[in-house]
Amino acid sequence: MRFLKTYFINLYAIDLLMISFAFLLSTINLVFYTKVELWKTHILFNTLFVIFVLLIANIDFKKKNIFWEQLHYWYILPTIFIVFKEIYFMIKPIGGVDCDPYLIAIDKFIFGVNPTQFLYQFSNPFLTEILQLAYASFFILPLILLIELQTRKQILNFKFVAFSLVLGFILSYIGYFLVPAIGPRFTLHEFEMTNIELPGLWLTNYLREIVNIAESVPAGTPNPIEVVQRDVFPSGHTQMTLITMYLSYRLKTKFRYFIYPVGTLLIIATVYLRYHYVADLIGGLLFMILTMYLSQILFNWWNNLKEDKVFQYPPKVKRKFNYGQKKTS
């Protein structure tokens, strides 16, 4: 108990969240060690990561200088992507069967057609360019929100938003385990024909290739269906963008009027560009609601335990309207 008080009391809620997820991933690796080839490497990385977080949190608490403070705030950025690649080596061997047929069936049940195939008739290079640019803003929009809060010295809000975003990523990763799928660009369309069927103007092909590399299918990959990351349901792009839009609205940030339209285009792009089924977007919305429900509860639980400040949304401003009121002389 003394060890816990000494080393864990200085953790932010986001630190505890990441440590807990590292333990969960290590447990999954251990349970499925006969299926996950790199299970020892994953457990070693997760262990070193936990030690790293504990060190950063405690050094930041003792040193109290800007370097350790900023490292403590922002170490999570590369970590999210590294964990994304760790689960890449776990989902397919553990999950086995892709769930795309069920997601396709949901879309056809709702719309009577496959939405990505239906939208193809409206495609043109200008629209494709705009939507690919919007899709590429996935990490930029949350960064804009976080940077604004930090520069305005709203540190409690910054910590809560960072916690909510990371919780959202973690829940989406769990969703990938539960519903492994590869998306319509592989199942309903020919992946190799994407650049030909959906050409852009200047940056589309480069941005598309960056996405493909991140998902382990760079140009020339043989049999990409077998090696692409299973990261379709829920749509993390939809989930995280909705979280960003919602929090920018509730916290009344200055850049929300930029985040709203770009975020809306990003969500449309997930289907138009054939990355997701509409069922994935519905999943992203549901996971967003779950994230926002849990985030304040978990964040404030830990802060209460530490006797630290709890997070509350700013009160909504009530506007009074005097309709039809006549001026008296």
Architecture overview:
This protein has 329 residues and is mainly α. The chain contains 17 helices and no strands. The longest helix has 28 residues, at 278-305. The chain is globular, with a radius of gyration of 22 Å.
Map the helices and strands.
Blueprint: H1 2-8, H2 13-31, H3 39-63, H4 66-74, H5 76-95, H6 100-111, H7 115-119, H8 125-136, H9 140-151, H10 155-178, H11 184-187, H12 194-197, H13 204-214, H14 224-227, H15 236-250, H16 256-272, H17 278-305
Helix pairs in contact: 2-3, 2-10, 3-4, 5-10, 8-13, 8-16, 9-10, 10-15, 10-17, 15-16, 15-17
Could you give a short description of this structure?
The protein is mainly α and 329 residues long. The chain is 69% helix and 0% strand. It has 17 helices and no strands.
Radius of gyration: 22 Å
Number of domains as seen in the coordinates: 2
Main beta sheet: strand number and arrangement? Answer: none
Number of separate strands: 0
Structural class: mainly alpha
**Average pLDDT rating:** 93
Tell me the distance between the termini.
74 Å
Report the principal-axis shape. globular
H-E order: HHHHHHHHHHHHHHHHH
Low-confidence stretches: none
Question: What share of the residues does DSSP label as strand, in percent?
Answer: under 5%
Fraction of helical residues: 55-70%
Total helical segments: 17
